[in-house]
């Protein structure tokens, strides 16, 4: 019974090191996607609130499409689609050999696009919570529109958006498991391979579950800390902090 | 020409026409998976949410552990654990006469989706019940209503309305997540699309599948909005 657990260890024939590397890949792709997805989400949110019809329409369609299509399908479309497009470009430019899409980049783009669609909702909600007077006062002080956004609106935005963005992060962390299907060696990929070699699926997928659970619990703790920190000036109003 | 070939023919896509029937079959499997798991999951979630709030201490802790576990791990991992992992104990399942269930990828996917969505829905319902003001309980008790009657006639109807929107979101998330069923050899809409791609090498088939999912999700979202508007028409919320 107990010799089975040696398979998870670091000894000869143990999968401990590959599993750790897989966990590293999972964390790396989640962390690499986060800034890209959140920034794109903010741009989409600003587009949704634009006074001009064209950006508003584009941003709404973008968010609707990427919130409605399964993440797995988005991943396939981006992985294979970009591959085909760039291959075409590669040949047009007369470059030798073939272009192959790095799975990490494809995964990052796909997850980032989905994250941006979901986080744009959070950003819109947060932007709506900033009163008009803040912008008007900034304009009265002679700040340009970009200065007003950077110095006045954005710092207030973070506090309101943080719970929603924290949620987006937790969803993203779990969605990274999908990149294993485009051969990125994350936790799921490693455990699937370990299962093929050792025929111990329950042990390995159970271990994978526990790793993901540890990540989720750590994230929940981290997000709670961040929220408490961003609310520290608001304790006087009550309810904002526990 | 069969009815399921018409959309592809109409859109002028040869591959969509050729695989239209397979994709229609896949759409039906996706629908079965989602509808059955969300409905059974909802029934489980009602019980879980009530036991989580009013049950004995050990039940509260057990349910808390269950929801944390299933909400903190990816659905894909859960599916693999159940399909491959439980299949490892074949002699045991054969002894208890459940092997027919855990042998089939369809039942495994159904089982995984059900316990997954039950965890999410239980948390939604718990939040909804908890946000009903205390006064509602106290008022009902002072009118002489029994605890169960209070829950059934006073608390739950109000909690359901609060939970309507997040439950609709959960339904949509399940439709999208059900695509992972294709990774355990099931030919749901995603699986049928993958098959079509692997045979035709025509990428546009993925775009048609995306369009089908998108229309499905948008239609359900709009119907759900209508239902919510209708059910809350007596309230001064909006």
Automatic annotation (TrEMBL), chain A:
Keyword ATP-binding attached: no
Main location: membrane
Transmembrane portions of the chain: 20-45, 57-82, 102-127, 202-224
Membrane topology reported for the UniProt record: Multi-pass membrane protein
Superkingdom of the source species: Bacteria
Family annotation (SUPFAM superfamilies): MetI-like
One GO cellular component, as annotated: ATP-binding cassette (ABC) transporter complex
InterPro entries: AA_ABC_transptr_permease_3TM, ABC_transp_permease_HisMQ, MetI-like, MetI-like_sf
Localization terms from the record: Cell inner membrane; Cell membrane
Domain ABC transmembrane type-1, chain residue ranges per copy: 23-223
Family: Belongs to the binding-protein-dependent transport system permease family. HisMQ subfamily.
Protein name: Amino acid ABC transporter membrane protein 1 (PAAT family)
Taxonomic classification: Bacteria, Pseudomonadati, Pseudomonadota, Alphaproteobacteria, Hyphomicrobiales
UniProtKB/TrEMBL annotation, chain B:
A single GO BP: amino acid transport
The organism's place on the tree of life at top rank: Bacteria
Location (main, coarse): membrane
UniProt keyword terms in alphabetical order: Cell inner membrane, Cell membrane, Membrane, Transmembrane, Transmembrane helix, Transport
Matching CDD domains: TM_PBP2
Gene Ontology cellular-component annotations: ATP-binding cassette (ABC) transporter complex
InterPro entries: AA_ABC_transptr_permease_3TM, ArtM/GltK/GlnP/TcyL/YhdX-like, MetI-like, MetI-like_sf
Keyword Transmembrane included in the entry's annotation: yes
Protein's membrane topology: Multi-pass membrane protein
GO molecular function, one term: transmembrane transporter activity
Localization annotation: Cell inner membrane; Cell membrane
Domain ABC transmembrane type-1, residue spans: 27-224
Transmembrane segments: 33-54, 66-86, 98-120, 171-190, 205-224
UniProt-listed Gene3D superfamilies: MetI-like
Keyword Cell membrane: yes
Family: Belongs to the binding-protein-dependent transport system permease family. HisMQ subfamily.
Protein name as catalogued: Amino acid ABC transporter membrane protein 2 (PAAT family)
Source species: Bosea psychrotolerans
């Amino acid at each position: 019974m107990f010799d089975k657990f040696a398979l998870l260890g670091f000894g000869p024939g143990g999968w401990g090191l590959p599993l750790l590397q897989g966990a590293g890949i999972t964390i790396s792709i989640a962390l690499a996607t986060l800034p890209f997805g959140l920034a794109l989400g903010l741009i989409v949110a600003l587009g949704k609130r634009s006074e001009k019809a064209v950006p508003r329409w584009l941003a709404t369609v973008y968010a609707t499409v990427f919130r409605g299509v399964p993440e797995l399908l988005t991943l396939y479309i981006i992985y294979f689609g970009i591959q085909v497009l760039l291959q075409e470009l590669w040949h047009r430019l007369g470059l030798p050999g073939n272009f192959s899409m790095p799975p990490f980049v494809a995964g990052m783009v796909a997850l980032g696009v989905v994250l941006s669609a979901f986080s744009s909702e959070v950003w819109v909600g947060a932007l709506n919570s900033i009163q008009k007077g803040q912008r008007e006062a900034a304009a009265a002080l002679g700040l340009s529109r970009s200065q007003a956004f950077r110095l006045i609106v954005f710092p207030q935005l973070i506090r309101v958006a943080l719970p929603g963005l924290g949620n987006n992060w937790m969803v993203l962390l779990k969605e990274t498991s999908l990149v294993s299907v485009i051969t990125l060696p994350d936790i799921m990929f490693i455990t699937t391979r370990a299962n093929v070699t050792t025929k111990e699926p329950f042990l390995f997928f159970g271990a994978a579950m526990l790793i993901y659970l540890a990540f989720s619990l750590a994230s929940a703790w981290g997000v709670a800390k961040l929220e408490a920190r961003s609310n520290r000036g608001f304790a006087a109003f009550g309810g904002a902090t526990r | 020409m069969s009815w399921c070939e018409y959309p592809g023919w109409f859109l002028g896509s040869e591959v969509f026409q050729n695989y239209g029937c397979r994709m229609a079959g896949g759409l039906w499997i996706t629908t079965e998976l989602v509808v059955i798991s969300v409905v059974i999951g909802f029934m489980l979630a009602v019980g879980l949410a009530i036991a989580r709030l009013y049950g004995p201490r050990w039940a509260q802790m057990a349910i808390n552990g269950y929801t944390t576990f299933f909400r903190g791990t990816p659905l894909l991992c859960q599916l693999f654990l159940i399909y491959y992992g439980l299949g490892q104990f074949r002699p045991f399942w054969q002894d208890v006469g459940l092997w027919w269930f855990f042998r089939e990828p369809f039942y495994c996917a159904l089982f995984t989706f059900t316990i997954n969505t039950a965890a999410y829905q239980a948390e939604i319902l718990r939040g909804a019940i908890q946000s009903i003001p205390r006064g509602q309980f106290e008022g009902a008790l002072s009118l002489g209503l029994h605890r169960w009657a209070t829950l059934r006639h006073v608390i739950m109807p109000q909690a359901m309305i609060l939970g309507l929107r997040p439950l609709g979101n959960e339904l949509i998330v399940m439709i999208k997540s059900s695509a992972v069923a294709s990774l355990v050899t099931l030919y749901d809409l995603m699986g049928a699309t993958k098959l079509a791609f692997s045979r035709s090498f025509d990428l546009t088939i993925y775009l048609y599948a995306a369009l089908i999912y998108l229309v499905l999700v948008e239609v359900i979202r709009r119907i759900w909005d209508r239902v919510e508007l209708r059910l809350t028409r007596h309230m001064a919320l909006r």
